[in-house]
Amino acid sequence: MTDIVTAPLLLAAVPIVGAMLGLVVWSQPEKLRIWSIIVTVLSLLAVIGMFGRMTVPAEGLLFVVLLPLAACVSLLGQPVHRDHRLAWVMTLLFLGLGLGILASQYLVSQITLIALLGLITFLLIWHHDPFWPTSWLGIGTFGLGTLCAGLAMIADPPVSSVASLLACAILLPLVPFHDGYVTALTRLPGSLPPFIVLLLPAIGLHDLAAVLPTLPEVAVSTMTILALVGALYGSVKALAQSRVRLLLAYGSISFFSILWWFVAASRTVIPQAAVFLGAVALATSGLLLAWQVVRTRYGDDVDPRAISGLASPMPEFAVLLSLLALAAMGLPPFGVFAGFMGLLLTSSLTLSAALLVIVIAWLAASWYILDMVQRLLFGLQRSDLRYEALRPAELASLLMVVLIVIALGVAPVSLFGIQTQPPRAGAVMESVTWNR
Amino acid sequence: MSAVILVPLLPLLAALIVLMGNEGSRYQRAKIAAYPIGAAFLGAIATLWLVATQGPITIRFYDPASLSMLAFPMGFYIDRLSAVMMVLISGVGTIIYTYSIGYMYQDPNDRRYLALIAFTTSVLLCMVSSANLMMLFLFWQVLSYMLYLLAHNHAHAATLEGAFRTFTLLRVGDVAFLSGIVLAHQLYGTLEFQTLFAKATESAVMLTPLPGIEIGGTTAITLLLFIGAMSKSAQFPIHIWLPRSLYAPTPVHALLHAGIINAGGFLINRLAPLYGLSSTTLHVAFVVGMVTAVLGATTMLAQNDIKKTLGFSTIGQMGYMIMECGLGAFSLAVFHLIAHGLFKATVFLSCGNVIHKARQEPEFPQTNHAAKEEEFSRLTWATGFLTTLLIPLVILLVSHGVLHIPLRDSQGTVIFLFFIWVTSSQAILTLIRLRAVASWKVSAAMLLILLFVVFIYLFAVESFTRFLYPNPAEVATYFQAAALPNWLFDGLIGGTALVIILGWFYIYAQAQGRTMWVPNWVGGLRLRLYVLFLNRLYLDELYQSLGRAVMHVVHRIDKRESGWSK
Fewer CB within 10 Å, N or C, chain A? Predict the structure, then answer.
């Protein structure tokens, strides 16, 4: 009992206290960034130390491990600048809140979620990016999420279940509640977008696993339809984008919608769902970090169509970006493919419109992601552009993401504290020999 | 036994040797890396011997019962088919790599290129020795991306466009393959080859994808997997990636045409017991193969670019290969792909020398066509014509009397004999037109060589079938499943023979300078067809329009929806 209370507290406390201590070196950006990175590593160590003392949720403990890693790579991939200090501290704060939500019991978890959503809403109102107008629809969506999380705590079923479901649809973006996610990914500063791309959906899936058994049938049917619409919608929107952050936001919405469909159709969250979500989010995070590398060199307002031929002068960047693109497209041996195949093979999907929509969304990813990567890496080198190889911190952050996504693809799921489920009923267990 | 794993790993080692190290030892490392690939070839030969004498080798690093829990089920299943393919791939890979060392000497991108060649060889070897359908699919997809990289020049816009299109089209095949795998797992609960075949044989499942439409489970699976095979083996209408990828370095073409493109034929052979359960899929394969063979060969004749000509020649040959699978002659398809692979690899690797020599030869290519036509020889022509009529009779006698092939019961064998006849006839006609020398010696030599080649081919194929599929009952089952209605089969054979014989007469008359009356509309049609095939049936333009239409719709949806891009 003591562990159930202390473990989440400790996990949340390490980054939150770290964020506060970081204010001591606020005037020294370089030190603040190093300190923030150290805090994420300490956070990871705390998670590993607490592994046996935490209650294992339906989706396993994968997200608790991935969150500090995602925070670490997000911080590593940022250039040192005074303007990024707020983002670094907020990353630590979000990490603390995220770990608290994932590891705590229901009531504490919901209160922490309200705090997190409130903080994101505040940041979106307060922070202005000169290249992106303020999105009141996105801010409103987070406001709705905060309201739903609060309602889920105080109302009785089925209102609480539906409110909780709406909050999940905002966190793990489901059309038409995806605006908040897109806004956060495009408007939040510095290291926050590559981090929240994992944080929000992970919390969404965690909460969804809890609320699924209480949902009315009509809500599940609606989820199924919205998920299929969302998978196509995300692909179509991603295909139409020329701005990288939007493309990645809509692309990930398409993949998350696929996950929604599987969860709704099976009415359960299986371990492969966590692997799929973690891998999609990290691959997107890696691509955002790679785009950050380009922005650091050519400005925040750079048009990706104006940059080409990075492969020859920046070979390490080219290799890592290509690997991340392969992961995001769902190619082996990366986690997206492993999770996707795991979901497909454990579902009861046969020849149907759903399978068609899912594979079309999967195919479309090859189109828009490869198109983006090919435009950046290949083609003629521009003589008026200054090409600069990856800095050690950038290299480390991208390499770490690639390795994590590979690990998610090849490592046994039991490594992450996920209990394997028994094989599907009807599967052939005995060895039958084909007689030629 | 477990040492056979080294065969696919050695080329990977070669890739690492090429990539790792300083600039000074670059050329030395490139040469050293040839040894592991050569060792893989020797290992493949040893594996073939082992498998032929002791039976299939199975090595698994996973639990087959929990395949869906781990999406990387690494394991090897090497039977005679796998071993033969391993010998072909590693052999061709060794030659191509060794050739490439000199070919890419002092090229700034030689490291990347040589490493890719070695890595692709490793991927191909892993693919053909996969223990289950999932692992095969894993390497199948990696191969799609390798093809994208190999057919790729960083700074050349047309190459980039071609590589992008190649990857997109191959992904279409990958998606179908994926759907087939999912369906197979849903229906039979396994992706292990042997178990899958056994379960599919035991239980016939019917699916209803749309109200009122029923389809057999095996048919649905094999059709989806067949689309995957179509994409890799450049079958109509998803063949356009192959001619578009011809900007790549010449050795890449050798690897592509001798190894990668055979993936479709290998897949169908690997799953032959499954395909043997679905007559519908085999018939679809026959039609697709036939259409591809006809269109590929015809388009090849109309091309004026040597690389495109060779590309469409390969498409035509792949069409034949798939057609053979569609007729249930699976082993023949493997024999065909080996023969074609070796032939095309030789052609591509030697084309540089030919061009070099042609540039030194002032009278080549010949421009004096009038002088050439005067050389027409009645004697040589008669020899060729008689030979083409004589050969089928001799083949029939030998196959029926000596090899004891039941011709009446196996359409696949008849098609094979027919294929030998047509091919040898075409060879004779081509020889006559190139060097029309009126000499009994030339005619006799031509006849003897041709008969020798035909008989060797016939005996080799028969022996190869017995080697690959030792159980004659199994072979008979495939032929039975693939059998076409007699009227259709006879019509196809008779119609094709008629067209070919008429073609000979027409060519003969033209060569003699005689005029043949043909209706005016035939002349007009011929011209229109020529333009159509010269432009490769306008399929490139059609796909481009399709892509533009899709993007137009996408942008319209994007504009209508009040999204965040505004």
Answer: N
Interface contact flag, B154 A363, Cβ < 8 Å: no
Using CA coordinates, name the residue in chain A closest to B137: A332
Please, how many CA atoms are within 13 Å of residue A42, restricted to the half-sphere of its CB? 18
Query: Which residues from A are below 8 Å from B111, CB to CB?
Result: none
- Orientation angle between helical segments A136-154 and A179-187, nearest 10 degrees: 120
| B474 has pLDDT over 80 | yes
H helix intervals, B193-329: 193-202, 217-232, 241-244, 250-258, 263-270, 272-275, 279-302, 306-326
Predicted local distance difference test score (pLDDT) of residue A434: 43
Report CA A162 to chain centroid distance, whole Å. 23
Mean pLDDT of B385-408: 63
CA distances from A80 to A29, A88, A127, A337 (A): 6, 10, 19, 34
Nearest by CB to residue A359, choosing from B72, B175, B198, is B175
Residues of chain A contacting residue B554, judged by C-beta atoms under 8 Å apart: 236, 239-240
Taking CB atoms and an 8 Å limit, are B141 and A359 in contact across chains? no
Q: What band does B70 get if pLDDT is binned at 50, 70 and 90? A: low
Residues 285-344 of A with CB under 8 A from B: 309, 311-312, 326, 331-333, 337-342, 344
Answer positive or negative: Cα dihedral of A145, A146, A152, A158.
negative
**Average pLDDT rounded to a whole number, residues B372-377:** 55
- State the average pLDDT over residues A285-306: 88
pLDDT at A425: 38
Q: Do B554 and A433 touch (CB under 8 A)?
A: no
CB B70 within 8 Å of CB B225: no
Contact between chains at A349 and B182 (C-beta distance less than 8 A): yes
DSSP label of B77: E
Burial of B293 (0-12, 13-18, 19+ CB in 10 A): buried
**pLDDT computed for residue B179 by the predictor:** 92
Chain B interface includes A183 (CB < 8 A): yes
Q: What is the distance in angstroms between the Cα of A235 and the nearest Cα belonging to chain B?
A: 9
Q: How far apart are CA A423 and CA A425, in angstroms?
A: 7
Is residue A416's pLDDT more than 50? yes
pLDDT at B396: 63
Interface test with A, best of B69, B161, B175 (most A CBs within 10 A): B69
How much is the mean pLDDT over chain B? 82
Tokens for A255? 């993949």
